Amino acid sequence: QETAKNTPIQVQIPAGETVLSIAVGGSHVLAVTASGNVYAWGLNTSGQLGVGTNVGAYSAPQKVSGPNGQGDPLSGIVRVAAGDEFSVALAGSGEVYTWGNNTYGQLGVNSWQKRTTPSKLLGYRGGGYMNNVAGIAAGGAHALAIRSDGAVYAWGLNANGQLGNGDTKNWNVADKVKGTSEDTYTLEDGFLSKISLVSAGANHTVALSRIGKVLAWGANGSSQVG
């Protein structure tokens, strides 16, 4: 076990790479570079680093493998999100990749088995692949995606209703988040729409609408739903 650091130290990203965004999970970190590569370091017992193994930990950044462990490393990525033991990446093409722990279906790949390299997120209720995604978020064991039209999709652990789809069963494919009010601006056919940003806690979720309204759902034991 490494000694805790009580002052910042510089992470040694490979030469020639410039980091544009980062995400922190339970015990791992992800970084996206200007070239679209993803680097990961920290705990890897569930394959959350995406390097093809599920053992130990890495103290130095490792380049995330390509989809399903084949071919070149994962590329074309613009944003990442990290849950407790899983990872999510958004490509500039609007597709989403996930890897790591999958006990609760938090990878959205119609399976409950963990993945040590990235897999492409399936579409609504498992149909095709998710596309036109503009934003992502990862909670403790659930994740969300906002499509370009502002519709929100969620998958993974749902014991506290954190997926916002009207039930409390776990989903291993993306389901559409339902509307949470009678506000016609944020509702479309009963589903949440026109959302610009989502953020996820351990067991709850918060969304920001395009006109500045905040919506929340999921666990509320500490009044976190507001």
3D structure, described in words:
With 226 residues, the chain is mainly beta. Helices cover 0% and strands 41% of the residues. The chain has strands spanning 19-24, 28-33, 38-43, 57-63, 77-82, 86-91, 96-100, 115-120, 133-138, 142-147, 152-156, 171-176, 187-188, 191-192, 195-200, 204-209, 214-218. The strands form five sheets. It has a four-stranded antiparallel β-sheet, with no helix packed on it. A four-stranded antiparallel β-sheet has the order 5-6-7-8, with no helix packed on it. A hairpin with a 4-residue loop joins strand 2 and strand 3. It starts with 18 loop residues before the first strand and ends in an 8-residue tail after the last strand. The mean pLDDT is 95.
Summarize the helices and strands and which ones pair or pack:
Elements: E1 19-24, E2 28-33, E3 38-43, E4 57-63, E5 77-82, E6 86-91, E7 96-100, E8 115-120, E9 133-138, E10 142-147, E11 152-156, E12 171-176, E13 187-188, E14 191-192, E15 195-200, E16 204-209, E17 214-218
